[in-house]
Specification:
binds adenosine monophosphate, 16 helices, binds zinc ion, 4-stranded antiparallel sheet, Rossmann fold, alpha/beta
Length: 463
Amino acid sequence: MSPTLRLTNTLTRRKEAFEPVDPANVRMYACGPTVYDLAHIGNARPVIVFDLLFRLLRHLYGADHVTYVRNITDVDDKINARAARDYPDLPLNDAIRRVTDATERQFHDDIRALGVLMPEDVNLPGHTPRFIEPRATEHIDEMRRLIDRLIGSGHAYVAESHVLFDVPSMPDYGSLSRRPLGEMEAGARVDVAPYKRSPLDFVLWKPSKPGEPSWPSPGDIEAPGRPGWHIECSAMSWKHLGPTFDIHAGGLDLIFPHHENEIAQSRCCFGTPVMANYWLHNGFLQVEGEKMSKSLGNFTTIQDVLKDWPGEVVRLNMLKTHYRQPIDWTVRGLEESERTLRGWSRYMEGHGEPGTLAIAVLAALLDDLNTPKMLSELHTAERQGDIAALVSSLRALGFRGASRQASSSVDDAAVRASIDLRLAARASKNWAESDRIRDELKAMGVQLKDNKDGTTTWEVARL
Ligand code: AMP
Ligand code: ZN
């Protein structure tokens, strides 16, 4: 008998024993990125956390018995706006394709560097694919079919070339987020529209403006249009996992309205009591104690972080906090993670792969992915000299021992000293010496930046 995995289920607000519908095919879905801009370090959190869950499920049920779907949202107003801004001379659809292709490629490069499994690592030729990354634009037919069914069963209606989901037609709408009706309505009133029967009704389909991407509409709407956001995930999860599956995951911000609306669509479409049996949500990431936002100037892309830190350090740092808790992303934390991994990497040299999880490490993960406990078990193994358990577990968790690259090979104090010498040279207008020092640092991979306020900062140029 396999050991029991326990997961905190947002649907029931309890930690529950995980029982898959079909142990021969455990099915999980995670909401993926909207590909309009570089992914930020907060977006890396669900990717890393649910990769760990995928690995754990594969360990428990067998690699050929777990299917993971993580979608790419490539139809969205923000994508259209970016495309029009960046490629004003191209037809909008071509511009959109450029934006989504380039952003998706970048996203893949970013997360590959974080050491997460990718479809090409998992899917074997001639076998059923086990890691699927569907694009929304490739599932418009499925969306239209769901919408037509919802209209047919009275859960959706057409108004002014839109299709709206009729929220009052679902008596237990709101059971995931458990928000009081009044609060949900107050939130929804921000988005008032004359064609809505109830303020909570949300868009399944909307008309496209000329030049915008458009597809034949569902219902009897003549004008072409495009899907709303929530219907995508109902369509893609249905196509690849069926009407009811095991785990649905995403960030905390998605509980309402996105996941609530996915549930409403899928359940009303198929007449099922649940869409997914377990709903998992990761907590939010903030940077140095502050909410990350462009206006605060602390917006940090995965690329920014990877300029300074090896991907495995980023991954380890993310796992130091339990996935449900908020995480404070700090340079101090990264330095500590780098030290830990540098120590562990020494043991990993010369060891082959793949590994297996030591019992204590597995026990920690089975308890709602308790990664802080998992890390303390790894430290214990090290302290007790059980290096085989440490190395084997690290390998099974996807660590390869690559803690030394970029920043770790540069000595901070030496760089600071050179910068001070260069500032002194500049103060005495010795430009030749100043340039010599800058070139010397550049040869070490250190890029200087002279700031307006007279200070000089530096970063390790990307390898
Ligand atoms: P988005 O592209 O904004 O839809 O986000 C993609 C995924 O990243 C979703 O699962 C979000 O919940 C998650 N996410 C966005 N911002 C953060 C953050 N600051 N911390 C943790 N997760 C986040
Ligand atoms: Zn979704």
